[in-house]
Each structure stands twice: as C-alpha cells, then as structure tokens.
Write a structure and sequence with these properties.
The protein is mainly β. The protein folds into 2 domains: 2-92, no CATH class; 108-204, Immunoglobulin-like, CATH 2.60.40.3470. It is built from 1 helix and 14 strands; from the N terminus they run αββββββββββββββ. It has one helix spanning 2-16; strands at residues 46-49, 57-66, 72-82, 89-92, 108-113, 116-121, 124-128, 133-139, 144-150, 158-164, 167-174, 178-185, 191-195, 199-204. The chain has a 5-stranded antiparallel β-sheet with strand order 5-6-7-14-13, with no helix packed on it. The protein has a 5-stranded antiparallel β-sheet with strand order 8-9-12-11-10, with no helix packed on it. A hairpin with a 4-residue loop joins strand 8 (133-139) and strand 9 (144-150). The longest helix is centred in the first third of the chain and has 15 residues, at 2-16. 10% of the residues are buried.
Length: 205
C-alpha cells in the first residue's frame, strides 16, 4: 500500500514538472519590467538653463531620476558658488568644447553733454559732474535708478541704449531747474551710491 501511495506522489511531481528544467523561474521578460519607461526618450546631449535675475549663489543642484526598474529617485550635489545669471547653466552628457577665455572688456566712456560724463566699468557706473544731487529714486519692474541733479539748463531728452550688462539704457531728461539721469537695469539688483571727488558712483551687486 505504501508503495502505491509513493508512486502516486512521484507521478504528481512528474506531471507538475516544467518542460525545460533549466529555464529560470524569473527571466528578463517578467522581472523589472516597468510600464512607465516604455516611452522613448531622446539621449541627453547638452541642455542650457537660464537662471532668474535675482540669482547670486547656486547652493545645490538636485536631479529627479527615472531608474531602470521604473522607480523614481533623487540625487543632489552641493555647489555653494557665486553665479552670473547672465550666463547659461549647462547640463551635458557629452564632451564640451569650452570657448577661449573672453577678451578683457574695456570701460565705456560716454559724454552726452558738455556738463556730464558717464563712465561704465562692469557693474559700476560713474556720473562725472560737479552738479549737486537733489534726490535719488528707485523703480521696480522695470528696475531703474534715477538721480536728479541741480542745473538750470535746456536740452532735449537723450536716450542711450547699451549692450553692457547690467546697464541696459540711460535716459537724460530736462526738468527745468534740474535734470534727471535714469539708469535702466537688465534685472533685479541691490545698489550702492557713493559721492566722490569726480561725482557719483553707482555700484550694483
């Protein structure tokens, strides 16, 4: 009787056996297959990003990553470096040919009127004049700094467009007993105004 029972058990095992005993139970066809990575993605080569104008220090960079098994993960890197928001942030997964070091930018000298000279050097602007400052004004959106200087003089309003960031445009207008110098900026800045022996120095930061 025991032999008959053992025979039935062995027969059941044979019937349940797989056709190919060497075929793995788990294969590449049924492991780690994620429906959310069926989308075709283009290879990452070079991507450029523009930071907003108030940006001054890049503290950290964080990436959200889609893994091979369909799960999501995050990786972050500490940077803690000053940045120039005028320049692109470049993300590359391919070798980059960096441009040669740019030539030194020379200061710009403007003489819109006989009584007024303007010197621009990077983020500093000097209004060279002997005229007294009546008031200073600051406007936002668009960002502008205005200086009212005392002088009884007549002239037509003059506008000078600039291509020297951070200064975008200078407008000088007559207001009877004084004239106004308006400095249009290309973004959001703090500024410092100092009086020196040459006139008025404006420094952006």
């Amino acid at each position: 009787m025991k032999k008959i029972i053992v025979a039935f058990i062995f027969l059941g095992l044979v019937l349940l056996a797989r056709d190919n005993p060497f075929k793995p139970v788990v294969s590449s066809h049924n492991f780690g297959k994620a429906t959310n990575i069926l989308k075709e993605y283009k290879p990452l080569k070079v991507e450029k990003f523009k930071l907003p104008s108030p940006s001054r220090v890049l503290k950290k960079v964080k990436f959200e990553i889609l893994n091979v098994d369909g799960s999501m993960s995050e990786v972050s890197f500490d940077v803690d470096k000053k940045v120039d928001w005028h320049q692109d942030i470049i993300l590359s997964n391919t070798p980059i040919k960096f441009e040669k070091k740019p030539k030194k930018v020379e200061p710009m000298l403007l003489k819109p009127f006989k009584f007024l000279t303007i010197l621009i050097d990077k983020n500093r602007l000097l209004i060279k004049t002997k005229d007294s400052l009546i008031r200073e004004l600051f406007f936002s959106k668009p960002y502008k700094i205005a200086l009212d200087l005392k002088r009884d003089v007549l002239f037509y309003t003059k506008t000078i467009k600039l291509s020297k960031a951070p200064f975008a445009k200078i407008t000088i207008g007559n207001h009877g007993k004084f004239y106004r110098v308006v400095l249009a900026l290309d973004g959001k800045y703090h500024y410092r105004l100092k009086k020196n022996s040459n006139g008025y120095l404006i420094e952006l930061f």
